[in-house]
Specification:
The first copy, chain A, has about 210 residues and is of the alpha/beta class. Chain A has 5 helices and 12 strands.
């Protein structure tokens, strides 16, 4: 069976998004800078149907992540930026158009029930209304021998950690202080971690931990 | 001229001390766990007059830090855990006895004036009441060609960062989530950083950044 792996980019001062997220700026003020390390990578571009791009350690780490995953879990805000009933959500179809980069089932944790949406390229969005444990269990089932990626945002990641559902946590530390925004760790979790790997480039530092079950 | 280097240990969730610090538990509840990586090292033990200890990457990093420094800057709470007038401070002589490990001048930022205290082994404690810029300037003067270490705690480190006084920042990331305590980054600073080095062991991860002046 695969692992449940949380994977997220965080500024050195602990933020996974800037303040005041909007439809135009879904990662909040300054939040796009968190992901500057990723959008030029060959493996990220390939996943998005683009040619070219950089290779090197950051690309290797991202490719490893993509290749290992058989299913994703994400929060409603990461899916659409919205909240409340779907008919009032301007991005109810998600951010990614007809051919999203996931190429696997994505379990979206939400309070608002909805039929599964099938996209091109193997991506489907399954809307889970009975909580995080159910979402992870369904994702495990769908992933088979591959990993389940907890893709964010902060709230879903915290809930998974607190529920003891995360086997490994990979944090990509962006070399900047955002100063304000949404903290990855704001929930009072306590945990002992075991460093598995650390590597980086001038653009980002990748920290991977095994989470010890308490 | 040497560099001004901030050097501090932080939990992965951003804390440099646990909550509710006391004289008995100066690093707060659970805060001692932050420093588990350091107290077994050969170079730390040697600095404290002890024999033996572990060698390896963590020891190399700590030795490099010690060898590079010609002066230290620290906050009053790091020096004694106290506040207010010195005659009411139970640890007014500091935590380290007659032969402190610094072996160099230590500039303590405080609101309460006091004569310099000379200790054995080259350590002196100089009490600076006219602010962080003055403390760093005096430490630079004392350090000559060597580095000035901003040794903590969080408040002094934040003040130095915000005042643009820090050339390099080394953060030792302890592999644990403390859940509560004193955050290193809580002041709304914004900065762009440049990763200089990343390395680690199962006990800790060392991140070193150059701070770009804005």
């Amino acid at each position: 069976m695969g692992l449940v792996v949380s994977d997220i980019t965080m500024s050195l001062d602990g933020f996974v998004a800037g303040p005041n997220a909007t439809i135009e700026e879904p990662l909040g003020e300054g939040g796009e800078r968190l992901h500057e390390w990723i959008t030029g990578l060959q493996s990220w571009r390939a996943e998005h149907g683009l040619e070219g791009g950089e290779t090197g350690p950051d690309d290797d780490v991202f490719k490893e992540f993509v290749d290992a995953n058989g299913a994703f879990v994400m929060g409603r805000r990461m899916f659409s930026g919205g909240e409340g009933p779907w008919e009032e959500d301007a991005k109810a179809d998600g951010w990614w158009g007809d051919d999203p980069p996931f190429k696997a089932p994505v379990f979206v944790v939400t309070h608002h029930a909805r039929e599964t949406v099938e996209k091109q390229g193997g991506t489907s969005f399954v809307f889970v209304t009975d909580g995080i444990e159910s979402a992870v269990a369904q994702a495990r089932e769908a992933a088979g021998d591959k990993n389940v990626a907890i893709a964010g945002g902060a709230s879903v990641t915290q809930q998974c950690l607190q529920a003891g559902l995360v086997d490994e946590m990979q944090i990509h530390v962006a070399p900047l202080l955002l100063g304000d925004g949404v903290r990855l760790f704001d929930g009072g979790d306590q945990a002992q971690l075991e460093p598995v790997r650390v590597l980086g480039s001038p653009a980002v530092t990748h920290l991977k931990y095994r989470v010890r079950r308490g």
